[in-house]
Automatic annotation (TrEMBL):
The keyword Translocase does not apply. It is found in: Cytoplasm. It catalyses: pseudouridine(1915) in 23S rRNA + S-adenosyl-L-methionine = N(3)-methylpseudouridine(1915) in 23S rRNA + S-adenosyl-L-homocysteine + H(+). It comes from Aquimarina hainanensis. This is Ribosomal RNA large subunit methyltransferase H. It holds the Pfam family SPOUT_MTase. Homodimer.
Length: 157
């Protein structure tokens, strides 16, 4: 299985980008992982919120194959502790799927088409964070999940 993180817009903060890269390298010991950045919509300020979500949704769905499992990082998603999240990862690996895709949407969330295509929603917190910070939190939790599955000391129980 491979895991991909799709995200709208690039990370401008070089320190955050560096930390994200460190976790991507660490994840390479456990699974094939990649981040794919979907560029921000041009002239978004001239669009209604619904139009922006629709355009971003089309771009997201163009990156997803019918065989992929799609999990949206969404404020209304299910919350897991780190151990439960690692168990979710194991469940997906055991299911035989080829690719698990997690998506961080744009500033207004996801279009209805993306919600309909998704296989689930995951919330990292009830708090609101910048999309750039969520990338770091997600890759760290993904790394933590794999260290839990391998019974390695990174996660202290």
């Amino acid at each position: 299985m491979t895991i991909k993180l799709l995200a709208i817009g690039k990370t401008d903060d070089k320190q955050l980008a560096h930390l994200i890269e460190q976790y991507i390298k660490r994840l390479g010991h456990y699974i094939k992982f990649s981040i794919e950045i979907i560029p921000d919509i041009k002239n978004a300020k001239n669009l209604r919120t619904s139009q922006q979500k629709e355009r971003e949704g089309q771009l997201i769905l163009s990156k997803v194959a019918t065989s992929d499992t799609l999990i949206l990082l969404d404020e209304n998603g299910k919350q897991y502790d780190s151990v439960s999240f690692s168990e979710l990862l194991q469940k997906h690996m055991n299911s035989g799927i080829k690719q698990l895709i997690f998506v961080i949407g744009g500033p207004y969330g996801f279009s209805e088409e993306v919600y309909q295509r998704s296989n689930g929603k995951l919330s990292l917190s009830k708090m609101t964070f910048s999309h750039q910070m969520i990338r770091l939190f997600f890759v760290e939790q993904l790394y933590r999940g794999f260290t839990i599955l391998k019974n390695e000391p990174y996660h202290h129980r």
